[in-house]
Write a structure and sequence with these properties.
The complex is a heterodimer of chains A (about 325) and B (about 280). Chain A has helices at about 45-55, 75-80, 100-110, 115-125, 140-155, 170-185, 200-205, 225-230, 245-255, 275-290, 305-310; strands at about 5-20, 20-30, 35-40, 60-65, 70, 85, 160-165, 190-195, 210-215, 215-220, 235-240, 260, 270, 295-300. With about 325 residues, chain A is of the alpha/beta class. The longest helix of chain A has 16 residues, at about 170-185. Chain A starts with 6 loop residues before the first strand and ends in a 21-residue tail after the last helix. The relative contact order of chain A is 0.15. Chain B has one domain. Classes of the chains: A alpha/beta (about 325), B mainly alpha (about 280).
Chain lengths: ~325, ~280
């Protein structure tokens, strides 16, 4: 059992409703200091709302939480001074240059002008933004904006950082850059709470994962435990002819003896399978059954498959937006 | 080092990042005054980077100066020169009041773009972004007034009270704008998009400036309309500005303006701060 002092976040029974929608419905979390903790779930599952409560931007309807020992409601100011938030929208000021964005945050955190400028220069260098320092942020690419956003979050290196879907919408190169930045942050002692829709991302970065659906934690564990419960890998097969899918389904389930998942693409199937040699046998079985295969790959199970395994239904997006922009939820 | 061949960070990058993260220096918390001034600085940077926005709001008043002076001036006052003396202080007021709508638009933009989340997660006074933004907008207000006065001077406006009178008039209008801007920041937090704020703002401010004494002497209006124009605070602001520029201002007019500005600020500033604090 971990002692209280080593927990960066401890939350119990957090609940928050918007209008008639119960966005977060009793979330408990225990995040060890110095680790990366992933919250995995589809859009609208309650990830953002949970993070916004922990970052003191929203007041919970019920439940309580302590962040680095400070109560998120009664000691909100103390929480704010040790955490930083990188929200889902890269929250940079588009009408300012990259350098001005960082100086602005530095000044607001209490640095003198010269200190704020020196810190901005250091961060621009570290985040590979020196050439773009004098350009307005609205002209930045998605990856550059995200890097500037993260740089703004560490003007004062925080003890705890909330990262809400940091790579959604980024190209693979920018995604790798962001992942490297997160790894460096953690290596240097910052605790990270990471919200993501990608099992892959949680697997790459997180030490512990909570899977969240309809505002509730439905599974929790290390990536290895989670993958073990889901099947640690998946064989994805695409057929030449969608007509053959029923035969392919039978052949695969015969070869691997597990449930086959029919993907939205009518020519595609996937099936839990960890070892390459078993996958090869399964492909051979398809050939014996006379099913033409257009392509196959062995990879991580998708979020859909995780959800299928955990809940019996695929991940579905909530049909209402999690936080209607104009809703004025009274926090007091 | 890196897991993927593409986008791999070099060892040098990694070192720079470690160096940047190694500094765990935490400065003493910024005072509320310093935070407000920093937000004011941000507002001024925006004037520098997005001057189009200022042009957008001042072009209408400038066109009005030219149109009304040359087309209607003779008919209304007998000569374009005389009408210009009457019209210009009013248009200066109009120009500044139009600019106040942008205080609400800018706040709404911050909300929709997520910048507000960043500010709200910082350990600063929660009113600082709002107070600072309105302070920073004073630069815009002064520029809006200056553009109209310069155009007026170019076509023959010669205020009786000289530079002192003009400065006093601009100062009075800016003080009133500080009060009025809170109405639009409230609107900025209630509506969904920057465009909605702009439309609603102008739908309010446009008729209010026309239903004042900016363009004509209210005595020429039907009695019911004259009654409205007489209580419209914008009329009093225009009368006071005219008075200051002509050297005939009364304490009553100036007092009415200051009181209405204070009332607007007293009602809408706390309302804005409240809405801002309780945003979901």
């Amino acid at each position: 059992m971990t002692s209280q002092s080593t927990l960066a976040i401890e939350a119990s029974g957090l609940r928050k409703a918007f209008g008639g929608t119960q966005a977060v419905d009793g979330v408990d979390l225990a995040v060890r200091a110095g680790s990366v903790y992933g919250i995995l779930g589809p859009n609208g599952a309650g990830k953002t709302t949970t993070v916004r409560m922990l970052a003191t931007l929203l007041r919970p309807d019920e439940g309580e939480a302590r962040v680095l020992g400070h109560d998120i409601v009664d000691e909100a100011d103390a929480v704010r001074s040790v955490v930083s938030l990188t929200g889902q929208l890269a929250s940079v000021d588009e009408d300012l240059t990259g350098q001005e964005n960082l100086v602005l945050i530095g000044r607001l955190l209490g640095f003198r002008r010269s200190q704020a400028k020196a810190r901005a220069a250091e961060l621009l260098e570290a985040f590979d933004l020196v050439d773009a320092a004098g350009r307005l942020a609205k002209h930045y690419s998605g990856g550059m904006r995200r890097r500037l956003d993260i740089a703004a979050s560490i003007v004062v290196t925080p003890q705890l950082m909330f990262l809400d879907e940091p790579t959604t919408g980024l190209d693979p190169r920018s995604r790798n850059q962001v992942w490297d930045i997160v790894r460096t942050l953690v290596a240097d002692g910052t605790t990270v709470l990471l919200c993501t829709q990608y099992l892959d991302e949680a697997d790459q970065l997180a030490d512990g994962i909570a899977v969240i659906d309809h505002g509730k934690v439905i599974a929790e564990g290390t990536p290895a435990q989670l993958k073990a419960s889901v099947g640690s890998g998946a064989l994805h097969v695409r057929l030449l002819d969608p007509e053959h899918r029923p035969e392919a389904e039978r052949a695969l389930s015969r070869a691997l003896d597990v449930q086959v998942y029919l993907e939205p693409d009518p020519a595609a199937l996937s099936v839990g399978c960890a070892r390459p040699e078993r996958a090869a046998e399964a492909i051979a079985e398809l050939a014996r059954a006379g099913v033409g295969v257009a392509g196959f790959s062995l990879g991580q199970p998708s979020l859909d498959e995780v959800f299928l395994a955990l809940t019996g239904h695929p991940a579905e997006e909530a049909d209402v937006s999690e936080e209607p922009i104009a809703s004025e939820e009274e926090a007091t | 080092m890196s897991t993927a061949p593409t986008g791999a960070r070099t060892a040098r990058d990694e070192q720079a990042l470690h160096a940047a993260l190694a500094s765990r220096e935490r400065p003493p918390r910024a005072s509320t005054l310093s935070a407000c001034l920093t937000f004011g600085w941000r507002g001024m940077l925006k004037v520098k980077h997005v001057p189009e926005q200022l042009v957008d709001v001042t072009i209408t008043p400038v066109l009005f100066v030219l149109m009304f002076t040359y087309i209607f001036g003779g008919a209304i006052s007998g000569s374009t020169g005389e009408y210009l003396e009457f019209l210009l202080p009013g248009i200066m007021v109009m120009s500044v009041l139009f600019t106040t709508v942008y205080s609400g638009v800018a706040l709404n933009t911050d909300v929709t773009k997520g910048v507000v989340d960043r500010f709200r997660s910082l350990p600063i006074a929660r009113s600082a972004p709002l107070v600072g933004a309105v302070l920073g907008d004073s630069v815009r207000y002064v520029l809006g007034a200056a553009v109209v006065i310069v155009v007026g001077m170019a076509i023959g406006f010669r205020p009786e009270a000289g530079v002192g009178g003009v400065v006093a008039a601009v100062a009075l209008v800016v003080v009133f704008a500080f009060g009025l801007a809170w109405v639009f920041t409230t609107l900025g937090l209630l509506l969904r998009t920057p465009n909605a704020v702009m439309n609603a703002g102008f739908m309010a401010i446009f008729p209010l400036t026309f239903l004042s004494n900016v363009f004509v002497d209210p005595e020429t209006l039907p009695a019911w309309l004259e009654a409205f124009v007489d209580v419209n605070p914008i009329s009093h602001l225009v009368t006071a500005s005219r008075g200051l520029m002509a050297g005939t201002a009364t304490a009553g007019d100036i007092g009415y303006v200051l009181v209405s500005a204070a009332v607007l600020a007293a009602v809408f500033a706390p309302l804005t701060v409240r809405l801002y604090r309780s945003r979901s």
